[in-house]
Amino acid sequence: MMQIQFLGAADTVTGSRHLVTLGDQRILLDCGLFQGYKALRERNWAPPLFAPREIDAVVLSHAHLDHSGWLPGLVKAGFTGPIYASPATRDLAELLLLDSAHLQEEDARRANRGGWTRHERALPLYTRADARRAIAKIVPLPPGRPLPIGPVTATLTPVGHLLGACAVTLSHAERTLTFSGDVGRQQDMLMPPPQPLPRSDVLLVESTYGNRRHPADTGLASAELAHIVRETVHRGGKVLLPSFAVGRAQALLLVLQRLKRAGEIPATLPIFLDSPMASAATALYTRHRRLLRVPQREITGLYDGVRLIADAAQSQRLAASRFPSVVISASGMATGGRVLFHLKALVPDARNHIVFAGFQVGGSRGAKLVAGASTVKIHGEYLPVRSPVSALEGFSGHADADELLAWMRTMPGAPQQTFVVHGEPEASDTLRLRIKDELGWPARVPQHGETVNL
């Protein structure tokens, strides 16, 4: 028997958690944080819809927090088994989980000091000690090497998107399930294209961009960024790039270096990377550079002329400065971290420009700004948004709808059932229809908390 419980990233694009029962083994695919709308974020605090102590193992597709960020909560709730992930995912997850715990501790302290909490005392979802306990359980699993988990065999297949990202295939008694994780693009700036799918009876496929196509010309986003930088510098402003510290920050550094070499932006323009985690992640990208499609000289030159901001005092001085520059700071959806201090300083001034270069989850501060919000709430204060705000879709690390379908066509034969997950409702249903009409495969969008027996 095969049973799947959809405990996250079902009818939404966040909180990836899928509990698969094969025989007597209970394996959790991903264990992500819910992000975006408050109703979703509150799920992070709710008791899980399963018994953590009864889970035999977790297998991670990749390190992004919407796929790995609730691991400390899982361990805190009683999970004692191993967590399997590719070696690069293990390294990145350590950075992300410790940073996530630090931010939650800081946010709780700040809320208590500022009186922003409605509770008697704000508490973090989990602490750095909880994160360290989860990290200690991560066991590296090289892609392509089958791993027995009791009578179940788990195998990882690289899918681009992010350093170490893989699809997960579980096999048991001639029954096979593949979970896509997040699928990368054919022409990604950093990562090779996704490897072909294995034969599977059941497919769980992401649908982040299930109703959209990326621009055909991948250079358009770079050209648009160059134009924004030139115009902003000309009027004496700063360009702020809220960025995911892992993956997106490295892609933006690569683009900015290429624009400087091509003379598209001033060679002397100050570029700041205000994210210690992004700096550490860049070192990991250099260590794992054999996994990338970028020439070694470009990876080792990402920091050429870039000023790294180490501590909070430097970050605050940079936020208060008024000279033309480009600032890359985390987080990518402006949900927390140092980027908030830059936003507070920059959004009220029309000389500046805020540029989001990645998917913005509904309900996040980034999504509201991209949608044209006239005010933004930061640290309990509402600020007028006078600076221009742009979204550059061309930097996405997700496959679009056409690329997802092309990747699914690499599967030898049709699956018996396809579940479309990890997407906003419209995106998931649009991809479901295309799978049904163009591939002829049975497909459906599961609901949060649903259990399916196969």
Task: List its traits.
31% helix, 454 residues, Rossmann fold, alpha/beta, seven-stranded mixed beta sheet, 2 domains, Metallo-beta-lactamase, Chain A, 14 helices, single chain, 21% strand
CATH architecture of the largest domain: 4-Layer Sandwich
Overall mean pLDDT stands at 93
What share of residues are in beta strands?
15-25%
| Overall domain count | 2
- The shape is globular
Helical content stands at 25-40%
CATH superfamily of the largest domain: Ribonuclease Z/Hydroxyacylglutathione hydrolase-like
Uncertain segments are: none
* CATH class type of the largest domain: Alpha Beta
Write down the Rg. Answer: 21 Å
Label the structural class. Answer: alpha/beta
> Can you list the strand order of the major beta sheet?
6-5-4-3-2-1-22
The name of the CATH topology of the largest domain is Metallo-beta-lactamase, Chain A
Report the major sheet. 7 strands, mixed
Could you characterize what this model shows?
By secondary structure, this protein is of the alpha/beta class. The chain contains 14 helices and 22 strands. The chain has helices at residues 38-41, 65-68, 71-76, 87-114, 128-135, 220-234, 248-261, 276-287, 296-300, 312-320, 339-346, 365-370, 401-408, 425-439, and strands spanning 2-8, 17-22, 25-29, 57-59, 83-85, 138-140, 147-149, 152-158, 166-172, 175-179, 202-206, 238-242, 271-274, 306-308, 325-329, 353-356, 375-378, 381-384, 389-391, 417-421, 443-444, 451-453. Helix 4 (87-114) packs antiparallel against helix 8 (276-287). The radius of gyration is 21 Å and the shape is globular. The protein starts with a strand and ends with a strand. 51% of the residues are buried. The model has no long low-confidence stretch (mean pLDDT 93).
